[in-house]
Amino acid sequence: MQHQHRLLILYATQTGNALDAAERLAREAERRSCPNKLLSLHDYDPNLLPQEEAVIFVVSTTGQGDAPDSMKVFWRFLLQRNLSNHWLKGVHYTVFGLGDSGYQKYNFVAKKLDKRLMDLGGTTILERGLGDDQHPSGYEGTLDPWMSSLWRMLNTIKPEFLPNGPDVVIQDTVLIDQPKVQITYHNIENIESHFSTASDFTSPDILRSARSMHPGNSSSDKSGHPDCFLKMVKNLPLTKPNFGKDVRHFEFEFFSDAVQYDTGDVLEILPGQDSAAVDAFIRRCNLDPDSLITASPREMDDCNGHGSRMPVKLKTFVELTMDVASASPRRYFFEARCCYELFCNS
């Protein structure tokens, strides 16, 4: 049986940017007929790393030089003293980091991962790339030229990965991704039979249910629930109106039981949305705001516990999980839209 070559793309993300970058790498590899596998570091068995031929790591730096939560187990494994300096002999790798040069430990996670992989005997495909949020184009200002070099170097080192060369690509219209999220509509009568009392529909329960359906909450936290709820009681600007960044002082009071926290822990803020903007969005999409829905990542099934979520009204889901008024679409939104425009005009 002929050996199947595969490019492995591993990512660790806290806010979703590293996942976006990793998905773009996977799409570009696919366009070049390069078989690839995309996985979160949280879902990858590090014992298998010496068996890989070529690996791309895409990792972000959070807080004060901290690794994303999904990377911590993998990183502890790499720090084991019993791993020799030949452990990754024959494994080709490269690292792309996402960070902000405004912080002292800029891209610290990518830098230390690169060094550790080299110490363990790995061979670099290409010098690490460091994406910077301060760049006018964000991390993509570095990712674009870095990817061009990546395919050329990979073709030199592992030509079997790119059978048609680094520059022969399949048209984007052939490789439009499937939707990441699956929406399930529920019959109101069936729902009432499962949640028969008024206490089943309390505000915290609805909030938890809606937020747990957000795709970003489906990785390492299997419960989908936040550790606690806080209520904002003070919001003061610390910078002048025309300053480059909007820095603020927030104060909160605990809405539920208090929890311990450390510097670098993530605080998710749920701002209120303009009701008129939410209504306009729903009308524009021709949706029924009173429909009862659940949302889950397409690759997950009900055995993971996502099928037991309490459905919420579509309008509630939009209000609590989507930014319909001020969000900046990511690059892939425009790539996909361009392809759909081509479909409509062909």
UniProtKB/TrEMBL annotation:
Q: Which GO cellular component terms are attached?
A: cytosol; nucleus
Recorded GO terms, molecular function? flavin adenine dinucleotide binding; FMN binding; oxidoreductase activity, acting on NAD(P)H
State the name under which the record lists this protein. Answer: Flavodoxin-like domain-containing protein
- The Flavodoxin-like domain covers 7-151
Superkingdom of this entry's organism?
A: Eukaryota
In terms of PROSITE patterns, this protein maps to: FLAVODOXIN_LIKE
User: Where is this protein found?
Assistant: Cytoplasm
Record keywords? Cytoplasm, FAD, Flavoprotein, FMN, NADP, Oxidoreductase
Which cofactors is this protein said to need? FAD; FMN
InterPro entries from the UniProt entry: CysJ-like_FAD-binding (IPR003097), Flavdoxin-like (IPR001094), Flavodoxin/NO_synth (IPR008254), Flavoprotein-like_sf (IPR029039), NADPH_Cyt_P450_Rdtase_alpha (IPR023173), Riboflavin_synthase-like_b-brl (IPR017938)
Main subcellular location: cytoplasm
Q: Name one Pfam family in it.
A: Flavodoxin_1
